[in-house]
Structure formats: structure tokens, C-alpha cells
Design a protein that fits this description.
The complex is a heterodimer of chains A (about 600) and B (about 350).
Chain A (H helix, E strand, L loop, with lengths): L8 H5 L2 E5 L2 H5 L2 H14 L4 H7 E4 L11 E5 L2 E5 L4 H13 L11 H8 L17 H6 L4 H6 L4 H11 L11 H10 L5 E7 L8 H8 L1 H15 L1 E9 L3 H16 L15 E7 L8 H8 L23 E5 H13 L1 H5 L9 E8 L5 E6 L4 H8 L9 E6 L6 E3 L9 H6 L8 E6 L4 H15 L5 H18 L7 H15 L3 H5 L2 H20 L25 H5 L5 E2 L7 E2 L9 H5 L7
Parallel strand pairs in A: 1-2, 5-6, 5-8, 6-7, 9-13
Antiparallel strand pairs in A: 1-3, 3-4, 9-10, 11-12, 11-13, 14-15
Helix pairs in contact in A: 3-4, 3-5, 9-10, 9-12, 11-12, 11-13, 12-15, 19-20, 19-23, 20-21, 21-23
Chain B lengths: L5 E5 L2 E5 L5 H7 L23 E4 L6 E2 L10 E3 L3 H16 L15 H8 L23 E3 L9 H9 L5 E4 L6 E4 L15 H5 L5 E3 L12 E6 L8 E7 L2 E6 L13 H5 L14 E4 L2 E4 L2 H19 L6 E3 L5 H15 L4 E3 L4
Parallel strand pairs in B: 1-5, 15-16
Antiparallel strand pairs in B: 1-2, 3-4, 3-5, 6-9, 7-8, 10-11, 11-12, 13-14
Classes of the chains: A alpha/beta (about 600), B alpha+beta (about 350).
Bound molecules: flavin mononucleotide, iron/sulfur cluster (6 copies) and FE2/S2 (inorganic) cluster (FES).
């Protein structure tokens, strides 16, 4: 809690102001806040010299719901403000910085601390604390030590260490990183390539973006180590062009690394040459798929090809290629620096380390979180997420984005790891986690994800191209009350054809949202189809309007707005509704001042 | 098959094969039928239509036979219930966005989709929804494209890029809106297309057809007469498709030894001369300023006489032979031999220098 002290010059020497300038922060106006601090501090003479080095650009700290977040570190005490706008800066400077009295009404509440305290941030703890545009800031926290050390080892020793750490790919499938590198290294063809997959096309996912924005050097260092391990001299970062800030920070970081000879010829004074190129993706989801991504780098149409042969034997330009996700690579320097044993102390036996999730939906605290693998869903949602918004009832959690499934509330005690999620019919995916309450319709939810996959299908194979289209049309018909008996069985049969018949992971996983919602919420499908009722009340065309005589004040407003004369009303009489004429437009519902229309 | 070092079992039948072969190639050699739509031996394996899915032991997911390399002791089943169900549903899905207009269709009788629909007894009614309603494109002299019949197998675009290397067409758009098209959907013209008709030759449906042959007879009505192209020395084989004594189009079989079913614009579409009224059918000799029809004997005697006179009067240096690139190597050799030994002249040349 704030301590009241008078301003001494010595207090202000260590004065630091940290403003969140990740994409979330910038969108919320953090540049304006930074400018305002700069101006305000300049205006107050003595502090003018301190100001410049005090405004530190920090990356994402996860708590996006409350951007712009500002830390004021004064007299070695950190206070964090939330939802700051440039207009508030004057007061903060006046009260807190000058007088030493933090502006309590704007400080973050206990949920901010709860949100952070329950997490285990081995990756994200640097994001938000160091300046991502300054390589020395990264070096100061032991950055590039792991790369330097790895280059003194035999590549096979590096692979062994990573394999022992149990690190599994964070891009979705959870394949062992060490094993992938081993396969690649063993393919007797050169040159080989390493690629960092920063395409991140899932709706609502932004963990990879935040890591690159917050600590790009960790990814570069991971690539150097991986490149050395598999024997590659060139690496690519495939990143979507819609991430301009991440691309910019990566460019700056690459330049700085080259300047220090961490990239280029004979890096770290060894005999090893390694450099990294950036490739911008145009934002097609399917280009995150490994073979399509490589096609795209080659300048061709980003369409997947069947495997085998796998990319580790025939990848980019038909050469052995290791493709790793951003988060996977960011873990590598930590493993090489602190050892496999240290890494396995997080998580569970087969699911080591931590995972970054994007917690969204009907959850009180939303944002990026990092937790050890194997933490229960309950802890994540209630302890970190603060529970369901408006204290409504939790219905289900959707993980894995469009390729995942949903987990009903009754399984809330399950551990969140690769294998448990797959077992229950969902997926880790890239780490999306959508919390749903009792107002969410599960058919509608499945429809939402199918809309995405249908739109993103590349069109190469029939089950995905036509199958997802027909599946989406069936779901749409069901949510419009046009479902037919037998639709559920037909959906499941189609799901099987798409899942088993499709060429790439996009199609193969596209039916999961449908399959898992039918599995756990079949009755919701049934009541849409058989009774024409959406139990969650979310499907607009299935709504049934009623007029409650208990609340009706006989005002007749509904009567006047109804376009189809479905409301029968006379002065001093209760309004009545003729269901046969009602087209469910909702006008009366909106018009009634007394909430009498239900 | 020099290095048949592996053994695989397809439907219980053991077949020897080499590690470079795909399941489909081995099955074909072993006379095991696997349905395909996007495969063409002239093209790189694609794996798009998923009709050729087969069950491989110990692998949970079915694999496409056309792209999957064989491995030693692989056990492959091509007709399990699960596989047949998936294939039937795939055909059903294709037909759900298809005009199903076989009665009027040019391709009836030579359409793989039609055959498969018959074989699997599906009609495309279980899954329904939006259908394409795109206009027919025949804004060029040789090729008609009916997009609504296209099943996106990508064979036309691949043959245009992999074999012809013309780069005229490519898949555009994605998902349900993907379509093989020229850039910016412009008409095919000599500026962007070679009009080799290779795309037509590979299309498994009635989406791409030879414009000149439309309405003039379907495959089962046509007699195929195998012949060799007379336009150039490559000597491509093709079949004149004849109905009631008229050539209505040209096709070429994959087993054609020189060209494996490939043809150029001349071989495929340059057959108008056959029935042209301007065609010269007899030797002609100019007498005065008129041409007179004569017999072959008379014509050859006339040529021989004229050469003899020239040789006598001006010597061997005054005559020569100029042969055509439409001749084969053997014919060219014979001409040069003839000029050197009979005329005793070294004046030999060929037009193939453009
Ligand atoms: C349709 C589709 C989209 C994908 N998108 C991504 C992506 O955006 N980022 C990513 O890292 N992996 C993505 N993947 C997974 C990659 O194919 C690949 O498995 C992963 O990048 C490998 O890295 P990892 O082993 O470190 O996870 C996608 C897969 C599919 C099928
Ligand atoms: S599954 Fe979908 S995205 Fe993947 S190749 Fe087939 S059509 Fe393209
Ligand atoms: S929902 Fe629309 S149509 Fe139905 S009663 Fe109300 S105003 Fe009339
Ligand atoms: S393309 Fe084939 S299936 Fe389609 S209408 Fe023509 S013959 Fe029938
Ligand atoms: S006619 Fe030949 S060049 Fe023209 S689109 Fe077809 S394959 Fe390509
Ligand atoms: S036009 Fe014919 S060859 Fe080309 S994609 Fe369509 S069906 Fe296949
Ligand atoms: S003209 Fe064309 S089709 Fe005829 S032989 Fe030559 S290459 Fe073949
Ligand atoms: S023939 Fe194999 S996928 Fe089409």
C-alpha cells in the first residue's frame, strides 16, 4: 500500500514509468499516454533529465481487459494503474510522482494481483519487464548465454538436452521438439532449414504475437540453437503481415543481433554461420499448416500437400526442414540455460513446462496467461480468470480454437495438457480458451467455428471444401429452426468423412467443434430440431415471444411497433400476441418499457 | 522395374515393388482397381480428390494411394466398409454442387464422375445447399469451360503448369469459391494460352470440352482411328474420332509411345483441312497459267524430267533438296542421301530453323 513521503531528489533518480505498448496497449492509446508523460515530466523542470530514460517501452503483460496499464516505480516501489488515458497523466504526475501519493482510485484492484500471482511465468515474465527494442536489456537478463553455451556443445548434445526436457510443440500437435530436430538432423541432405511458425491464424489467439512483441530475442536465440542442432545455416520466420508491430520489433532485434555477430558468419566467434530471414504471410489460416507454409515461402499458392514425406525429410525447397512454433522456440534458450531438469520441474511428467493461453469469452479477467501444463481448468477459470462474468453459470470451455472441441462444466476438474484435451475430444491447438456461460448456444458456437474453417478452407480436397460448406449449412438450418429429424446422425457421418478424408489438419480437425458439442450437448441440438427451441435463447429465429400480464402496463407500445400486426391491444387491455403472425423480429421486445415481453 | 526389392500385400495379394513407387502405381501393376479423380500419370501426385483413399495396416487414418510411397511389408486394403463409405460421401458431396445434367452433357460416357456415381450408387441428395450457378465460358475458338461441372481436381491447372508450362490457368479463390481460371478471369487468347487443349484432355468431367466437337457425338458413338500426326517430326500418336465418316475431334491415348497422350495445338485442333473443300487431293501440273489435274505417274515423271534437264544443263550445283520439319528424322535422312548420291549435290537443307 502507498507510503506517503516527500519528494527527494534521490527518490526520483530511480523513477521509472512503464507503459504497456503491445498491440493491445497501442490500440487502447498507450502512445498518447507515453507522449503525455514525456511532456508533463519535461514541463516540471528538474525531472526533465530523468524522463527520457524512464519511459520504458514494455511488451505485453497479459491483462488486456484493463489497458492502458502503467507502472510507476518510485522509490523502488511499484504501483500499477489501469485504464489510463492521457487526461489522467497530469494527476498521476502531480499526486504520485511529485507528492508521492499514488492515485488510489485508478490503481489496479486485487484481481490484477490474483490474475498474476496464480500464474507461472517463465516465458512471459520478461514480456512487460524488458525493453524489446534493446538487445542489451535481454543480454542483461542472461540473454544469448544459452546460444553461446550451445555452440560449444556437440549438436547431438543440444538435441539430447531438449529431448530430455520433454518440450512438446506449442503449435498444436504437441510433437516432441527434440525428436523433430533429431529426425531432421538425421536426414542426410543439405542444406537444411529451420522455420519459426508465427502465422497464428486462430481467431482470438495472440500469444505468439505477444511473445515476439515482448521479447523477440528469445525467439531468435531459440532459432540459433535449433539451427545449430539440426545443422541449418538459414532460418525463416513466417509471420503474418497483420502483425506490423511484431514484424517491426523482430526486424530491429535481427539487426541488433547481426550487429553483435549473434547472426551472420562465424557467430559467437565459432565456425558456425547462421542467419534469419523474415517472410510475411498474407493471413490465410491454412498457411500455418507446415507444408502450405513452406509452399508459401517458396512463392507458390499456399496449399498443403499430403505427407509422407514429412517436412523433416522433404520440406522447404524439398530439403529437410524443422518447423517450430514461436512459443516452442522461446522455451529453448531457457532449457539450454537452466537445464532439462529445471524445465521438467514445471508441469507434469509427459507435459512439461508451461503454456501460454489466451483466456477469452465470458470470464471476468481476460487476457494472456501462462500456467504450468496440467493445471486444472477450474483453477484457470476461477482463480486466474476470476470466474464467470456476472457470476453466471459456467457451461463449457472451448479450447484449441476452430480445431478444438468444447469441454462441459462437469469436467472442470480435468488437467489442461495435450493428452487430456485430446482424450476428451478437444485439442490444445495454439492455446485459445473461450469461457462460455449459460447464455451460449452450443449449436451456435459450433456454427461460429465452422464459419471460420469453411471460409479458410484452401479448396484443395473435397471433404473439407464441400464438406465444411454443407456442414455449416446444416448447422445454420438447425439454428434457424429448419433442422430435420436425422440431421444429427447425418452431421456425425459427415464429420467422420471430413475428419478421416481430409488432406491436412485444417479439414481433419474442422468437425471437432461439432462432434464435441453433439457429444456433450446433444439435447440442445435435439430441442432446436424437434421443438424449435434454443435452450440458451441465443438463436434469434427460434425465440418465442410471450407477453407477461404480470408486467404489462397496457401501454400499447408493442402494438405500435409490430410490423405484422401480431399484437392485439386495445386501450386499458393487456396486449396479446398472435404467434401465427409473429415473425420474431424482436421489435416489441425492444420497445416494451416494462420488460413485459419475454 | 529393375529394383523390386520390396513386397506389399494389396487385398491379400502379394506384389513386388520398388521403394520409389506409390501404392497406386503398384496396385495398377497388380491389376487392383483403385478409383481416382485427381490423378493423371502425366502429372505429379496431388492427393486432392481423396477418392483413392485406402486402409494401410497399423495406420489409423486412411491414406491416399496416389501420393503414399510403398513401404516394405505394407498391408493395404482398398475396399473396406469405412473406405467405401468415405468414397461414397465424397462423391455425394461433389454431386451436391453439380448440375447432374448427364443427359445433355458432352462428357457422358467418358466422365469419371458419372462412372463413380454409378459405381457407388449415389446421387448427391443427402447433403444439399448452395450450388454454383456460373456462366459457361466459351469466349475462345477451341475450349469450352462449364464451371458448374468442375470438381476442382486441379488437373487442368497442373497440366498447364507442369507439362505445357504455359502458366495460363491456376486455381483462384479458396474453399467453396475456388475455381481454375486464367488471371483476372480473362478469355483465353493466343496472348495467354497455347490452345494445346491439354487441359481438356485431362479433365475427368464435362467441365472442359473441345468446342469444335461439341454436339457432334459422344465417346460411345465415335470410332477411334489411331494415326500419327502429320504436322511435325515428333510423330505424336492420336485417335481421329470419327462419326459417320467425319472427323469430329482428336484425342490421344496415354499409351501413345512418343507423346503419352500429350498433343500441341496443331495435332489436337488442326484437323479442319481433312474435310476442307479447298483441300488438294490430286497432283497438279501448271500448264500456262492454269493448274491441271494429272496422275501420280505423270507428276513424278515430270519432276524427274525437269531435274534431269537442269543437271545436264547447269551441273549438280544448280539443284538441291530442302526438306520439311514435318518429316521424320528418317525421311530427312533419306532426302539428304538422295540429294547427295543421285544429284551428287551437297545442297541439302531443312526448314527447321525457326
Ligand atoms: C490449418 C493449420 C493451421 C496452423 N496454424 C499454425 C499457426 O498459426 N502457428 C503454429 O505455430 N502452428 C500452426 N499449425 C501447426 C503447424 O502445422 C505445425 O505443426 C507447428 O507449427 C509445428 O511447430 P511445433 O512442433 O513447435 O508446434 C497449424 C496447423 C494447421 C493444420
Ligand atoms: S483439408 Fe481443407 S485446408 Fe487442408 S488441404 Fe484440404 S481443403 Fe485445403
Ligand atoms: S417479435 Fe416482431 S412480429 Fe413478433 S410480435 Fe413482436 S414486433 Fe410483432
Ligand atoms: S460432367 Fe459428368 S457427371 Fe457431370 S453432367 Fe456431365 S457427364 Fe454427368
Ligand atoms: S490450352 Fe494448353 S496452354 Fe491453354 S490453358 Fe489449356 S493447357 Fe494451358
Ligand atoms: S476444369 Fe476439369 S480438370 Fe480442371 S479442375 Fe475442373 S474438373 Fe478438374
Ligand atoms: S504437330 Fe504437335 S501434335 Fe503433331 S506431332 Fe508435332 S508436336 Fe505432336
Ligand atoms: S487420386 Fe489420389 S487423391 Fe485424387
Amino acid at each position: 500500500m502507498p507510503v506517503k513521503t516527500k519528494t527527494k531528489k534521490s527518490d526520483l533518480k530511480s523513477l521509472t514509468i512503464r507503459v504497456c505498448v503491445g498491440t493491445g496497449g497501442l490500440a487502447a492509446g498507450s502512445q498518447g499516454v507515453i507522449d503525455e508523460f514525456t511532456n508533463q515530466l519535461k514541463a516540471r523542470k528538474i525531472k526533465a533529465t530523468i524522463v527520457k530514460k524512464c519511459v520504458n517501452k514494455t511488451g505485453c503483460r497479459g491483462f488486456c481487459a484493463k489497458d492502458v496499464l502503467v507502472d510507476v516505480i518510485r522509490n523502488k516501489k511499484t504501483e500499477t494503474y489501469q485504464l489510463i488515458t492521457p487526461e489522467m497523466v497530469n494527476t498521476i504526475v502531480e499526486e504520485h510522482i511529485v507528492k508521492g501519493e499514488p492515485v488510489e482510485k485508478w490503481l489496479v484492484g486485487p484481481e490484477y494481483h490474483e490474475f498474476h500471482n496464480r500464474q507461472t511465468k517463465i516465458l512471459l515474465h520478461q514480456c512487460g519487464q524488458i525493453d524489446p527494442e534493446d538487445i542489451d536489456a535481454y543480454i542483461a537478463i542472461d540473454g544469448y548465454k544459452a546460444a553461446k553455451k550451445s555452440l560449444t556443445l556437440d549438436p547431438l548434445e543440444v538435441i539430447e538436452e531438449v529431448r530430455n526436457s520433454g518440450l512438446r510443440g506449442r503449435g498444436g500437435a504437441g510433437f516432441s521438439c527434440g525428436m523433430k530436430w533429431d529426425f531432421c538432423r538425421r536426414t542426410p541432405v543439405t542444406p537444411r532449414y529451420i522455420i519459426c511458425n508465427a502465422d497464428e491464424g486462430d481467431p482470438g489467439a495472440f500469444m505468439d504475437r505477444s511473445i515476439i512483441e515482448g521479447n523477440p530475442h528469445a525467439v531468435i536465440e531459440g532459432m540459433i540453437i535449433g539451427g545449430y542442432a539440426i545443422g541449418a545455416e538459414l532460418g525463416y520466420v513466417y509471420i503474418r503481415a497483420e502483425y506490423p508491430l511484431a514484424v517491426e520489433r523482430l526486424r530491429i532485434a535481427l539487426d541488433q543481433a547481426r550487429e553483435k555477430n549473434y547472426l551472420g558468419k562465424n557467430i559467437f566467434k565459432s565456425s558456425y554461420n547462421f542467419d534469419i530471414k523474415i517472410k510475411l504471410g498474407a493471413g490465410a489460416f491454412v498457411c500455418g499448416e507446415s507444408t502450405a507454409l513452406m509452399r508459401s515461402i517458396e512463392g507458390k499458392r499456399g496449399m498443403p500437400r499430403p505427407t509422407p514425406p514429412r517436412s523433416v525429410t522433404r520440406g522447404l525447397y524439398d530439403k529437410p526442414t524443422a518447423l517450430n512454433n514461436v512459443e516452442t522456440l522461446a522455451n529453448v534458450p531457457l532449457i539450454m540455460l537452466k537445464g532439462a531438469d529445471w524445465f521438467t520441474s514445471f508441469g507434469t511428467k509427459k507435459n512439461t513446462g508451461t503454456k501460454v493461453f489466451a483466456l477469452t469469452g465470458k470470464c471476468k479477467n481476460t487476457g494472456l496467461i501462462e500456467v504450468p501444463l496440467g493445471m486444472s481448468l477450474k483453477e484457470i477459470i476461477y482463480d486466474i480468470g476470476g470466474g464467470v462474468e456476472k457470476n453466471r453459470e459456467l457451461k463449457a470451455v472451448q479450447t484449441g480454437g476452430p480445431s478444438g472441441g468444447c469441454i462441459p462444466a462437469k469436467h472442470i476438474d480435468m488437467p489442461v495438457d495435450f493428452d487430456s484435451l485430446t482424450k476428451i475430444g478437444s485439442m490444445m491447438g495454439s492455446g485459445g480458451m473461450v469461457v462460455m456461460d449459460d447464455t451460449t448456444c452450443m449449436v451456435d458456437m459450433a456454427k461460429f467455428f465452422l464459419t471460420f474453417t469453411e471460409d479458410e478452407s484452401c479448396g484443395k480436397c473435397v471433404p473439407c471444401r464441400v464438406g465444411t460448406k454443407r456442414m455449416l449449412e446444416m448447422l445454420t438450418r438447425i439454428t434457424e429452426g429448419k433442422g430435420k429429424k436425422g440431421d444429427i446422425e447425418l452431421l456425425l457421418e459427415l464429420a467422420d468423412t471430413i475428419r478421416l478424408g481430409s488432406l491436412c489438419g485444417l479439414g481433419r480437425s474442422a468437425p471437432y467443434p461439432v462432434m464435441s458439442t453433439i457429444n456433450f450437448f446433444r439435447h440442445e441440438y435435439e430441442s432446436h430440431i424437434n421443438d424449435g427451441i434454443c435452450p440458451a435463447g441465443a438463436c434469434k429465429s427460434l425465440r418465442q415471444y410471450l407477453i407477461s400480464e404480470e408486467f404489462c402496463k397496457k401501454c400499447g407500445k408493442c402494438f405500435r411497433v409490430c410490423p405484422t400486426e401480431a399484437i392485439i391491444w386495445e386501450k386499458k387491455q393487456f396486449a396479446q400476441l398472435d404467434k401465427s403472425k409473429c415473425i420474431k423480429c424482436g421489435s416489441c421486445y425492444d420497445a416494451c418499457p416494462f420488460g413485459a415481453i419475454l | 522395374m529393375s529394383d523390386n526389392t520390396l513386397k506389399v500385400k494389396i487385398n491379400g495379394k502379394q506384389i513386388e515393388c520398388s521403394p520409389h513407387e506409390t501404392i497406386l502405381q503398384v496396385a495398377k501393376r497388380g491389376n487392383v482397381y483403385i478409383p481416382t479423380l485427381c490423378h493423371d500419370d502425366r502429372l505429379e501426385p496431388y492427393g486432392g480428390c481423396r477418392l483413392c483413399l485406402v486402409k494401410v495396416d497399423r495406420i489409423p487414418r486412411p491414406l491416399p494411394a496416389c501420393t503414399t510411397p510403398v513401404a516394405d511389408n505394407m498391408e493395404i486394403l482398398t475396399e473396406t466398409d469405412e473406405i467405401r463409405k468415405i468414397r461414397a460421401n465424397i462423391i455425394d458431396l461433389l454431386l451436391s454442387n453439380h448440375p447432374n445434367d448427364c443427359m445433355r452433357c458432352e462428357a457422358t460416357g467418358s466422365c469419371t464422375l458419372q462412372d463413380l456415381s454409378y459405381e457407388y450408387n449415389v446421387k448427391g441428395a443427402r447433403f444439399y445447399g448452395e450450388k454454383w450457378n456460373l456462366p459457361i465460358r466459351d469466349d475462345n475458338p477451341f475450349i469450352t469451360f462449364e464451371p458448374n461441372k468442375c470438381i476442382l481436381c486441379g488437373r487442368c491447372t497442373r497440366i498447364c503448369n507442369e507439362v505445357v508450362m504455359a502458366g495460363t490457368i491456376e486455381l483462384t479463390g479458396r474453399g467453396f469459391r475456388a475455381l481454375p481460371d486464367t488471371s483476372f478471369g480473362k478469355p483465353r487468347t493466343l496472348k495467354n494460352c497455347e490452345f494445346c487443349g491439354q487441359c481438356v484432355s485431362t479433365c475427368p468431367t464435362g467441365a472442359l470440352t473441345d468446342k469444335k466437337g461439341r454436339g457432334k457425338g459422344r465417346s460411345f458413338e465415335l470410332k477411334k482411328v489411331r494415326t500419327t500426326c502429320s504436322y511435325c517430326g515428333t510423330g505424336c500418336n492420336f485417335d481421329l474420332n470419327v462419326k459417320e465418316g467425319k472427323v469430329v475431334k482428336v484425342t490421344s491415348a496415354y499409351d501413345a509411345p512418343v507423346n503419352h497422350g500429350n498433343l500441341c495445338i496443331k495435332g489436337r485442333y488442326g484437323y479442319d483441312f481433312i474435310h476442307s473443300f479447298e483441300r488438294i487431293k490430286h497432283p497438279l501440273i501448271r500448264k500456262g497459267d492454269r493448274m491441271h489435274t494429272v496422275s501420280w505417274d505423270e507428276a513424278l515423271d515430270h519432276v524427274a524430267d525437269s531435274f534431269r534437264k537442269l543437271l545436264k544443263k547447269h551441273g549438280p550445283g544448280s539443284v538441291g533438296g530442302f526438306s520439311s520439319s514435318r518429316c521424320t528424322n528418317e525421311e530427312n535422312f533419306l532426302l539428304s542421301k538422295f540429294v547427295r548420291t543421285v544429284f551428287r549435290s551437297n545442297n541439302v537443307d531443312n526448314c527447321a530453323r525457326v
